[in-house]
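[Automated response] Your request has been received and processed.

Submitted sequence:
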Amino acid sequence: MARWQEIVDSAPEFAAAVRGHLDARVHKTIATVRADGAPRISGIEAFFADGELYIGSMPNARKALDLRREPRYALHSGSIDPPEWPGDAKLSGRAEEITDPGRRAAAAFKGGADAHLFRLDIDEAVLVGLNDERSKLIVELWRPGAELKRIER
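Generated structure:
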């Protein structure tokens, strides 16, 4: 598992591109695991603070309760329709709920005291786009401790 800053330190151009996709739109999509093991897709907002990636949630939202019970997640930046599609970013890993008031303040979390705040640990980050000719799909994959991998399809 890695924190956001580890991606920035090991692959700064890749991290900038991933962040660009995440920052391009307010709303992202997160997948969590329901109590019965089925996937749940929800809208979410994400933000960066002090080298970390965070998500917040309204009190007792199902996605937050999912993450409390089973911290695995997948986060998608969202995208626009072709032919203008610039690509998108995907991250997956485990979420850690932050309840300590000092850590919540350090993250500059704007949610209320009863809102949920999660820091996202990252198992993998993926950037998907097209080559310059827009004729092939380019997939870049980052994992902790591994070289950045580039696949062209």
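Summary generated for your ticket: Helices lie at 4-10, 12-24, 62-69, 101-106. Strands lie at 28-33, 39-44, 46-49, 52-57, 72-76, 88-97, 116-130, 137-142, 149-152.
If you did not submit this request, please reply to this message.
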